Amino acid sequence: MIVCENVCFGYERETPVLRDISFHIKPGEAVGLIGANGAGKSTLMKALLGLLTVQGRILVDGEPVEKATLARVRRKLGFVLQNSDNQMFMPTVYEDMIFAPLNYGLSRPEAEARVDEALRQLGLEALKHRHNHRISGGEKRMAAIATILAMRPEAVLMDEPTSALDPYNRRVVIDIIRGLPQTKLITSHDLDMILDTCDRVILLSGGQIAADGPAGEILRDRALLEKHRLELPLRLQGAARVG
Protein backbone atom coordinates (compact mmCIF):
# COMPACT_ATOMS: atom_id res chain seq x y z
CA MET A 1 0.00 0.00 0.00
CA ILE A 2 2.84 2.39 0.90
CA VAL A 3 6.38 1.93 -0.39
CA CYS A 4 9.47 3.98 0.39
CA GLU A 5 12.66 3.16 -1.46
CA ASN A 6 15.94 4.87 -0.57
CA VAL A 7 14.19 8.11 0.42
CA CYS A 8 16.50 10.98 1.35
CA PHE A 9 15.69 14.58 2.19
CA GLY A 10 17.30 17.61 3.79
CA TYR A 11 15.96 21.10 4.36
CA GLU A 12 19.56 22.14 3.85
CA ARG A 13 21.83 20.14 1.56
CA GLU A 14 24.52 19.61 4.17
CA THR A 15 22.03 18.56 6.88
CA PRO A 16 20.04 15.46 5.85
CA VAL A 17 16.82 14.82 7.80
CA LEU A 18 15.90 11.52 6.11
CA ARG A 19 18.68 9.17 5.08
CA ASP A 20 18.06 6.14 2.87
CA ILE A 21 14.59 5.29 4.23
CA SER A 22 13.16 2.07 2.79
CA PHE A 23 10.08 0.11 3.90
CA HIS A 24 6.88 -1.47 2.58
CA ILE A 25 3.49 -1.29 4.35
CA LYS A 26 0.96 -3.91 3.28
CA PRO A 27 -2.78 -3.20 2.77
CA GLY A 28 -4.59 -3.27 6.11
CA GLU A 29 -1.39 -3.15 8.17
CA ALA A 30 -1.22 -0.89 11.25
CA VAL A 31 2.27 0.57 11.68
CA GLY A 32 3.58 2.82 14.42
CA LEU A 33 6.26 5.36 13.50
CA ILE A 34 8.23 6.21 16.62
CA GLY A 35 11.36 8.13 17.53
CA ALA A 36 12.65 10.92 19.72
CA ASN A 37 12.11 14.57 18.81
CA GLY A 38 14.04 15.40 15.67
CA ALA A 39 14.19 11.80 14.44
CA GLY A 40 12.46 12.68 11.16
CA LYS A 41 8.90 11.42 11.77
CA SER A 42 7.05 14.58 10.75
CA THR A 43 9.31 15.06 7.73
CA LEU A 44 8.57 11.52 6.57
CA MET A 45 4.82 12.09 6.93
CA LYS A 46 5.10 15.25 4.82
CA ALA A 47 7.05 13.33 2.19
CA LEU A 48 4.36 10.64 1.99
CA LEU A 49 1.76 13.35 1.38
CA GLY A 50 3.85 14.90 -1.38
CA LEU A 51 4.50 18.08 0.56
CA LEU A 52 8.26 17.69 0.08
CA THR A 53 10.37 16.79 -2.93
CA VAL A 54 12.65 13.91 -1.96
CA GLN A 55 15.35 11.79 -3.50
CA GLY A 56 14.38 8.16 -3.91
CA ARG A 57 10.91 6.81 -4.58
CA ILE A 58 7.59 6.80 -2.72
CA LEU A 59 4.58 4.83 -3.99
CA VAL A 60 1.02 4.85 -2.66
CA ASP A 61 -1.08 1.96 -3.97
CA GLY A 62 1.27 1.73 -6.93
CA GLU A 63 1.15 5.46 -7.73
CA PRO A 64 4.44 7.38 -7.53
CA VAL A 65 4.18 10.41 -5.25
CA GLU A 66 5.10 13.23 -7.62
CA LYS A 67 3.60 16.46 -8.88
CA ALA A 68 1.65 14.89 -11.74
CA THR A 69 -0.02 12.28 -9.52
CA LEU A 70 -0.63 14.23 -6.28
CA ALA A 71 -4.38 14.62 -6.77
CA ARG A 72 -4.82 10.85 -7.18
CA VAL A 73 -2.41 10.00 -4.37
CA ARG A 74 -4.08 12.34 -1.89
CA ARG A 75 -7.46 10.79 -2.57
CA LYS A 76 -5.99 7.51 -1.35
CA LEU A 77 -4.56 9.03 1.86
CA GLY A 78 -6.36 10.57 4.81
CA PHE A 79 -4.26 12.65 7.20
CA VAL A 80 -5.38 13.32 10.77
CA LEU A 81 -3.44 16.32 12.07
CA GLN A 82 -2.10 16.56 15.61
CA ASN A 83 -4.01 19.78 16.20
CA SER A 84 -7.66 19.26 15.24
CA ASP A 85 -8.20 23.03 15.18
CA ASN A 86 -6.02 23.10 12.05
CA GLN A 87 -8.20 20.47 10.41
CA MET A 88 -11.74 21.44 11.45
CA PHE A 89 -12.11 24.85 9.78
CA MET A 90 -15.84 25.01 8.94
CA PRO A 91 -18.55 26.18 11.38
CA THR A 92 -20.05 22.71 12.04
CA VAL A 93 -18.90 19.10 12.03
CA TYR A 94 -21.29 18.35 9.15
CA GLU A 95 -19.90 21.14 6.98
CA ASP A 96 -16.35 19.97 7.60
CA MET A 97 -17.22 16.37 6.78
CA ILE A 98 -19.08 17.09 3.55
CA PHE A 99 -16.51 19.56 2.21
CA ALA A 100 -14.04 17.03 0.72
CA PRO A 101 -16.62 14.61 -0.77
CA LEU A 102 -18.35 17.50 -2.54
CA ASN A 103 -15.00 18.73 -3.84
CA TYR A 104 -14.26 15.21 -5.11
CA GLY A 105 -17.25 15.65 -7.41
CA LEU A 106 -19.86 13.63 -5.52
CA SER A 107 -23.48 14.74 -5.60
CA ARG A 108 -24.83 16.16 -2.35
CA PRO A 109 -26.93 13.00 -1.64
CA GLU A 110 -23.84 10.81 -2.18
CA ALA A 111 -21.70 13.08 0.00
CA GLU A 112 -24.34 13.16 2.76
CA ALA A 113 -24.50 9.36 2.69
CA ARG A 114 -20.75 9.22 3.26
CA VAL A 115 -21.00 11.66 6.17
CA ASP A 116 -23.77 9.64 7.82
CA GLU A 117 -21.90 6.37 7.30
CA ALA A 118 -18.68 7.71 8.85
CA LEU A 119 -20.53 9.14 11.85
CA ARG A 120 -22.43 5.88 12.32
CA GLN A 121 -19.20 3.86 12.03
CA LEU A 122 -17.70 5.81 14.92
CA GLY A 123 -20.89 6.25 16.94
CA LEU A 124 -20.72 10.03 16.59
CA GLU A 125 -24.16 10.79 15.15
CA ALA A 126 -24.82 13.30 17.95
CA LEU A 127 -21.94 15.50 16.74
CA LYS A 128 -23.24 15.95 13.19
CA HIS A 129 -24.72 19.42 13.57
CA ARG A 130 -22.61 20.60 16.50
CA HIS A 131 -20.55 23.74 16.12
CA ASN A 132 -16.82 23.04 16.16
CA HIS A 133 -16.11 25.76 18.72
CA ARG A 134 -18.64 24.20 21.12
CA ILE A 135 -17.30 20.66 21.29
CA SER A 136 -14.54 19.34 23.53
CA GLY A 137 -11.02 18.59 22.39
CA GLY A 138 -11.71 14.86 22.49
CA GLU A 139 -14.91 15.24 20.49
CA LYS A 140 -13.10 17.40 17.95
CA ARG A 141 -10.35 14.78 17.58
CA MET A 142 -12.97 12.08 16.96
CA ALA A 143 -14.84 14.35 14.53
CA ALA A 144 -11.56 14.94 12.66
CA ILE A 145 -11.16 11.18 12.23
CA ALA A 146 -14.78 10.95 10.99
CA THR A 147 -14.04 13.77 8.51
CA ILE A 148 -11.19 11.73 7.05
CA LEU A 149 -13.29 8.55 6.89
CA ALA A 150 -15.96 10.39 4.89
CA MET A 151 -13.30 10.74 2.18
CA ARG A 152 -13.00 6.91 2.11
CA PRO A 153 -9.20 6.84 1.94
CA GLU A 154 -7.37 3.57 1.46
CA ALA A 155 -4.78 4.53 4.09
CA VAL A 156 -4.91 6.81 7.12
CA LEU A 157 -1.89 8.74 8.40
CA MET A 158 -2.18 10.04 11.97
CA ASP A 159 0.09 12.51 13.75
CA GLU A 160 -0.07 12.19 17.57
CA PRO A 161 -3.79 11.22 17.61
CA THR A 162 -4.01 10.95 21.42
CA SER A 163 -1.99 14.03 22.41
CA ALA A 164 -3.63 16.37 24.95
CA LEU A 165 -6.60 14.04 25.51
CA ASP A 166 -7.95 13.11 28.92
CA PRO A 167 -7.84 9.37 29.82
CA TYR A 168 -11.46 8.72 28.80
CA ASN A 169 -11.20 10.35 25.37
CA ARG A 170 -7.78 8.80 24.83
CA ARG A 171 -9.34 5.36 25.30
CA VAL A 172 -12.23 6.22 22.96
CA VAL A 173 -9.80 7.34 20.23
CA ILE A 174 -7.69 4.19 20.69
CA ASP A 175 -10.79 2.02 20.31
CA ILE A 176 -11.76 3.94 17.15
CA ILE A 177 -8.28 3.51 15.67
CA ARG A 178 -8.29 -0.20 16.41
CA GLY A 179 -11.59 -0.59 14.59
CA LEU A 180 -10.52 1.17 11.39
CA PRO A 181 -10.06 -1.30 8.50
CA GLN A 182 -7.76 0.99 6.52
CA THR A 183 -4.00 0.77 6.32
CA LYS A 184 -2.68 2.93 9.17
CA LEU A 185 0.59 4.74 9.79
CA ILE A 186 0.60 6.43 13.20
CA THR A 187 3.32 8.64 14.62
CA SER A 188 3.26 9.21 18.37
CA HIS A 189 5.26 9.59 21.55
CA ASP A 190 2.45 7.69 23.31
CA LEU A 191 4.07 4.26 23.10
CA ASP A 192 1.29 2.64 25.13
CA MET A 193 -1.15 3.75 22.40
CA ILE A 194 1.17 2.41 19.70
CA LEU A 195 1.32 -0.92 21.54
CA ASP A 196 -2.50 -0.98 21.70
CA THR A 197 -3.13 -0.10 18.05
CA CYS A 198 -0.20 -1.26 15.90
CA ASP A 199 1.06 -4.63 14.75
CA ARG A 200 4.42 -3.29 13.64
CA VAL A 201 6.77 -0.48 14.60
CA ILE A 202 9.31 1.48 12.59
CA LEU A 203 11.82 3.24 14.84
CA LEU A 204 13.49 6.31 13.36
CA SER A 205 16.67 7.76 14.80
CA GLY A 206 18.75 10.49 13.24
CA GLY A 207 16.74 10.27 10.04
CA GLN A 208 17.41 6.56 9.58
CA ILE A 209 15.49 3.38 10.36
CA ALA A 210 17.01 1.96 13.53
CA ALA A 211 14.53 -0.93 13.83
CA ASP A 212 11.52 -2.32 11.97
CA GLY A 213 9.56 -5.25 13.33
CA PRO A 214 6.68 -6.54 15.46
CA ALA A 215 5.41 -3.89 17.89
CA GLY A 216 5.47 -6.30 20.82
CA GLU A 217 9.17 -7.03 20.31
CA ILE A 218 10.47 -3.52 19.68
CA LEU A 219 8.41 -1.88 22.43
CA ARG A 220 9.66 -4.44 24.97
CA ASP A 221 13.33 -3.93 24.07
CA ARG A 222 14.46 -1.56 26.82
CA ALA A 223 18.07 -1.37 25.60
CA LEU A 224 17.02 -0.53 22.04
CA LEU A 225 14.55 2.15 23.11
CA GLU A 226 16.90 3.79 25.60
CA LYS A 227 19.69 3.82 23.00
CA HIS A 228 17.43 6.00 20.87
CA ARG A 229 16.17 8.26 23.71
CA LEU A 230 12.85 6.48 24.28
CA GLU A 231 11.45 4.58 27.25
CA LEU A 232 9.38 1.45 27.62
CA PRO A 233 5.60 1.96 27.46
CA LEU A 234 4.37 2.79 30.95
CA ARG A 235 2.50 -0.44 31.50
CA LEU A 236 5.57 -2.46 30.52
CA GLN A 237 7.68 -0.44 32.97
CA GLY A 238 5.30 -1.59 35.70
CA ALA A 239 5.57 -5.20 34.56
CA ALA A 240 9.37 -4.93 34.56
CA ARG A 241 9.36 -3.63 38.15
CA VAL A 242 7.09 -6.48 39.28
CA GLY A 243 9.33 -8.98 37.56
Taking all Cα atoms into account, the compactness measure Rg is: 18 Å
The oligomerization state is single chain
Strand fraction: 15-25%
Distance between the termini: 40 Å
Q: If strands are numbered along the chain, what order do they take across the biggest sheet?
A: 6-7-8-3-9-10
Model regions low in confidence, pLDDT < 50 over at least 5 residues: none
Largest sheet: 6 strands, mixed
> Mean of the pLDDT scores?
92
Helix content: 25-40%
| Helix and strand element order | EEEHEEHEHHHEHEHEEHHH
Please, could you describe this protein's structure?
The protein is globular. The model has no long low-confidence stretch (mean pLDDT 92). Helix 3 (93-103) packs across helix 4 (108-122) and helix 4 (108-122) crosses helix 5. Strand 9 and strand 10 form a beta hairpin. It contains 10 helices and 10 strands. The strands form 2 sheets. It has a 6-stranded mixed β-sheet, sandwiched between helices. A 4-stranded antiparallel β-sheet has the order 2-1-4-5, covered by helices on one side. The chain has helices at 41-48, 70-76, 93-103, 108-122, 137-149, 167-179, 191-197, 215-218, 222-227, 234-242; strands at residues 2-9, 18-25, 30-34, 55-60, 63-64, 77-80, 155-159, 183-187, 200-205, 208-214. With 243 residues, it is α/β, with parallel strands linked by helices.
